[in-house]
Amino acid sequence: MMIELKEINKDYHLGLETVHALRGVDLNIDNNEYVAIMGPSGSGKSTLMNLLGCLDTPSSGLYMLNGSDVSDMDDNALAEIRNREIGFVFQNFNLLPRASALHNVELPLIYNGTPSSKRRDLAEEALTKVGLKDRMHHRPNELSGGQRQRVAVARALVNNPSIILADEPTGNLDTRTGDEIMDLFETLHDNGNTIILVTHEEYIAEHSDRIIRLRDGRVERDEAV
Amino acid sequence: MRASEFVVQLRENLVIALDVIRNHKMRSFLTLLGVIIGVMSIIGVQSLIEGFQKSIHQQMEQLGANVFQVQKFPVNIGHDERDKYRNRKDITWEHAKAIEKYCTAVERVGPEAWHFEIIVKYRDRKTSPMNVMAGGTPEFFANNSYFIDGGRAFSEVDVQQKADVAVIGKDIIDALFPFEDPLGKFILADGRRYQVIGTLEEMGSRFGNSEDNKVVIPLSTFLKYYGSYRSLNITVQATSVDMMETAQEQVIGVLRAVRKVPPGEDNDFEIWTSNSLIKSFNDITRAVRIGALVIVSFSLLVAGIGIMNIMLVSIRERTREIGVRMAIGAKRGDIRMQFLIEAIFLSVIGGLFGILIGVGLGQLIALISPVPAAIPVFTILLGFVVCVAVGVIFGVVPAVKASKMDPITALRYE
Predict the structure, then answer these.
(1) What is the Cα–Cα distance from B287 to B321, expressed in whole angstroms?
(2) Degrees (nearest 5) of the Cα angle A85, A64, A197?
(3) Tens digits of per-residue pLDDT, A154-196?
(4) Most buried among B57, B70, B201, B275, using CB within 10 Å?
(5) Total tally of structural domains belonging to chain A
(6) What is the pTM of this model?
């Protein structure tokens, strides 16, 4: 099992009030699954994604990621897990504006000390996978939105992570470019990657094999497409 | 963090830092300006002082490194302190004769006396009142490194006869004899008539004062006119530089005996060499240096605050970047290091420019003033270290602030 969540609770304290963002979520995601997480705003969708992405830890419950318990790791251990196991794709790409595509893709490798020649090879390989090898020396502002998101996907892939976590990856793209990105995810999935997609667009979610719907911090429905 | 990892990240951080400076030229320049001015002042001031010191040392050596002086009062004392020494016996011509007779390590002994602020006249011309009258023996000239340019120095015979003859310096010649040969002419110095028998070679200035304003007459003549109840200075030339200490010991022994100083009591006279003058001069310059350093540190404090400010702005602007870096695996320590290195880099770049400009300024001043150039190597190193320190000290707060950001909030920051 790639991901195992047991009785996950996440509470936020806003002044005197406690917000229960997640209430007892149980969830298993297997290797090479293609899952979409859906839900209206306030459903706990973002909280779940932050937990899955190891950006945050649950208030209670168990989170096993690729065999290790990440529920109460410290900041440094979480940073290493993110570096090794998670590839993030964000709605607004989040590339470094003044770095070339190549350098952006190399970034995760810098934080695990990969030597520069190997870094370059791996980054080129990832950019080849997303079809941007010929654009690797361009800066983000010299690339189209779709190309930028491809660079972001390459960055997510470069460390060969356990899961690719995409948060509204087509939210800033027009329909046609969005479809291209979804095709890219399809290909990655076919190549054996595990993909978790967070979206509120039904037609985007339908690209996945399984849709998990959240409401009020609980899993409302969990079904195959 | 492993060493290799550190190197990888250090390189990355330097590239980023350079990139940030390149992309915010104006802002970086203004921030750097503080450091540049601070370091420039340190280097500039120090190289000036060092150059000045060098020139003093050179001039002191011209004085004759194997010559020392015996006198009644210590050199560097104020008027109040003088009272303490007033009861000492005067130093007399007899003492000089005793030194000459008993000290084997001594080459030449010259008793002398001085009278300051005299006016010298020749016909209708007159000098400023800033000239100096010296009474000496023939040894006076060698012991003081005064060289005869024309005519002759006075002789033992002149001294015995209390002759009214004078050897005069270049300033006085220029003022009184612009178109004439001074030799053989009669001048009025401090109201008395002397025949000019010799002229002194031009000496330039020592400690910023002209050395060419001297009227040198036989000591006997001097005592005749200015009174013989006075303490003399005695210049003593040792047989060589190596014999300086021996000569001084001999002189002290002879003087204690002649002046009947009881054993165990302090000398009731002072011996000083240009070395002791160099030492007291060095003490003064050290104080000036430290003072300058303190003042300049304030400008570096301001520079540091500038760096801290710009780093805080930069971190705010790059919140998203920090979020992204954390999301893809940067640890808090990595982020802290990144911004710390950026602050140090900024400060050091400023420091390097400051050093360059400071050294250049020092050379320029040396070029247009009589102070010789000196490159204060130690100060340059110090300046460099100080820049790193400024970067660290004022970079820590912003860097820690950046490292404490919550990645989720940082990623959402607009």
Answers:
(1) 49
(2) 55
(3) 999 999 998 999 999 999 999 999 999 999 999 999 999 999 9
(4) B70
(5) 1
(6) 0.69
